[in-house]
């Protein structure tokens, strides 16, 4: 049985051409996407995990190549299904795949490093964040662009560029927080300091950002100095739980909650609540599941290769916990279509720097990123994941919020 025909049967009638190392071809010959099975190692991984994970492992190792746009490929390819193959063909396939498993290793390719310590402890969180963010600042500059913003942008119109949308995102957060000159802002999980810089530069606030990534903190401090903002802006290599200052006028959390974990959600909001003055606002911006019915942890590929210990919660879970902590939630919105657009921009950036990226971080990491960003874009497009901004305020003892009757942003 020819290999390309076998894989084609497993995927069904999809607009993809399959090419294999045995010279076989199957599927749509004029398709925009081609799946190239380059070695028996691809069959080995598919045999060990006859589902999406097996296909992922084959791609990450380079035993399988996707020729064409990765998003288009993922949108076209379903999970591999042995049940879709007729019984007689399945017997031949099992024999072929069994041989592949015998002669080729089926151990997963290198994934995340082994994390030590209790789940979501300070020590283990530092390792998990370092795994993803301490890759290469140069690599991130290529992928993210000048804004160095690794979170969902907000597109003010259909024709806005990625940079314009990232500016709008930070400005929207600043407006929701009602920032004014002289205020004090804490940005937890601040990344490369983009929100810190935006708030200090455009709103005249004194901004402190904290991140568990040493690479991010170093890059951010240099950028702050270049912008001439060192007297009003600072980024520390520090866990948000170790911040000593209090009485902030506002707190922004942009892309941190995904790393907190469901078990720590209450203590997370309690700590942020304790850091705010009366009337202070919290803007929580994070990826969520579309509901509260599933387990909190992310899908296997993302958790294994991209965000170790990452957990996605439903928006209702987050809003309820904010209320239970003492915040009054005053506004909420879902920006999932914006994140799909953001990821499309990052994917284009990576493709335009592909050879440089492979040389900088290695083919394994570059392939993981190409796959993960295209897959995430598909997830937002199909409402498998969402992006929610939730605005809360710390009331005084009489229940006053000190907010305008209608939103001003």
From TrEMBL:
Answer yes or no on keyword Transferase. yes
Give GO terms: molecular function aspect only.
methyltransferase activity
Record carries keyword Ubl conjugation: no
Recite the UniProt keywords alphabetically.
Lipid metabolism, Methyltransferase, S-adenosyl-L-methionine, Transferase
User: Which InterPro entries does this chain map to?
Assistant: CFA/CMAS, CMAS, SAM-dependent_MTases_sf
Q: Name one GO biological process term.
A: lipid biosynthetic process
**Which domain of life does this protein belong to?**
Bacteria
Record's family?
Answer: Belongs to the CFA/CMAS family.
The molecule here is called: Cyclopropane-fatty-acyl-phospholipid synthase
Q: Which classification does the entry list for the species?
A: Bacteria, Bacillati, Actinomycetota, Actinomycetes, Pseudonocardiales
